[in-house]
Amino acid sequence: MAEKDDVYEDDAALLAAITGESAPDTPELRAAREDIDVLRTQLALIADELAPPAQVVPLAPYRHRRLKVALVGVAAAGVLTLLGGGLALLGAPGNSSSDKGVSSSAGGSTEKSALPDLVSLACAETIVTGTVTTVEGTEVTLRVTHAYKPIPGPTAVTFTTDTPLTRGTPVLVILSPGATEPDGLFVGPQEISDQLSTLPQALKEYRTCTP
């Protein structure tokens, strides 16, 4: 009878780990979650090995566009309340490359470490995370791992940047329509994680481009 109970507990823990349902924190549940994480990692590695070469989607020649202030007055206060003080989203607008949201953990100068303003996020054509596959001068190609805009997104994206990048580096890139130079470029897991803490909610709340 005890053996049957153990089997039942193991099965219940495994089901909770797979579905993400809330369950008591037991050794069986922790072990099941660890097993699921290992399995997901192994499946991702297998998928990467079996996936065909990514199709590079070149973007149109860069056309400079001015970043605009997302909100003013009462609207700005509303966004601060909504995003819990997400000041990272309220980067000051400008019309030069030094005002774009570009940050680098790989060395070189850091121009800005905040996302573009909310209007620019709503108007962005491409917002993706991915891994750098090739670097040729200032031209960088990355294999897309997750697309926030458009959905579904491209399998690869090419852009230009003076930020030093190397093959295998994870990045988050934000591109305006017709642009090759990013409005936002964030390098490394920590910077990407910092921006993703507010990016999905911002995109959900501001879907309409009103430049």
Automatic annotation (TrEMBL):
Keyword Membrane (UniProt): yes
Keyword terms, alphabetized: Membrane, Transmembrane, Transmembrane helix
Transmembrane segments: 69-90
Protein name: Uncharacterized protein
Protein species of origin: Streptomyces acidiscabies
